[in-house]
Amino acid sequence: MKRIFVPIALIAIMFASCKKYETSEALDLNTLPTVTITGTVYAELDETKAGLEYAPAGTAIRVSVPYVDYSATNQSNGNWASPEFKLGEDGKFSINVPVVPSGVDATVSFADFVHPVVKLNNVGQTYTVNTHFTCANIAVQGLGVGEADRIVQGTYAAGTVNPTDRDVLVPTTTVTVAGKLDYYSDTSKRVVPEGTTITAVITLKDQSNKQYVEKQTITVGYGGSYSIKVPMVERGTASVDLDAENFWIFTDVYNNNKQAYYRYELNVTIGGIVNFATQPGKNFTYSKGSSPVSDVQ
């Protein structure tokens, strides 16, 4: 370990051994007793949840002490600095600091970081924005005077949005798109069964061509009805791609009214959705596979 020597002109009494240093003797900081500064560091990384989260693992923490606190005659104006401590998953740190009986004034400093922040828009959907975080230094005065360890707490403040995320499009309202889904069996039109699920991939763009994409799972209601809350912004335009979440197998007839199972699927796009009221009448029909899967037993 590298040793730092500071000239000392005063008598220093060691906590443990009571050894005295002469005024002409250099003080070896590695021989001094230590006091531990421990703490937990927080940041608001998810605005959809109550309370704060731990600062990200790997965030660097340091403690520094002016050399003059160890020797009043020191002329270097420098600082003793602890090794860099990396936060763990629990946001905690622990750093040992050499001290003298008269006490030292330590400064705990925290490295900045950029991290995604989970946010909630006006229509209840979540999105993330990379955000720059800073944490103010913490002053720990009189460290080592008649006490043992110190416990501190740091809280990061969210700063500017990362420049790469300045053009993120955030929906401000919704438009309802609704309709019915059906299929043909026995040459008759039938409604898709209640409880059938479909996937809706929504792409929203504003006038400057910023884009927002969201995926929803839609459950078909009574009579083959469905309804989608489409995210929207003022003067925006959206499209919705509807896909069968599963290939549904329904019965139909072939070869002299012999009944069989067929695969039916849905793959349609609803385009030109704009910021107006509910848009009903978006009705679609599942397409049937060309060949039966198997005969009905």
Describe this entry's structure for a reader.
This protein has 297 residues and is mainly beta. The chain has two domains: 139 residues, Sandwich (Immunoglobulin-like); 120 residues, Sandwich (Immunoglobulin-like), CATH 2.60.40. The protein has no helices and 26 strands. It is elongated, with a radius of gyration of 34 Å. The N terminus is likely disordered.
Summarize the structure.
With 297 residues, the chain is mostly beta strands.
Shape: elongated
| Assembly state of the chains shown | single chain
Total beta strands: 26
Structural class: mainly beta
Given as residue ranges, the uncertain stretches (5+ residues, pLDDT < 50) are 1-25
Mean pLDDT: 80
In the CATH hierarchy, the third-tier topology of the largest domain is known as: Immunoglobulin-like
Radius of gyration based on Cα positions: 34 Å
Summed up, the helix count is 0
Q: What is the CATH homologous superfamily assignment of the largest domain?
A: Carboxypeptidase-like, regulatory domain
Percent of residues in helices: under 10%
Please identify the top-level CATH class of the largest domain: Mainly Beta
**Termini gap:** 82 Å
Second rung of CATH, namely the architecture of the largest domain: Sandwich
Number of domains: 2
- Please summarize the sheet with the most strands: 5 strands, antiparallel
Into which percentage range does the β-strand content fall? Answer: over 45%
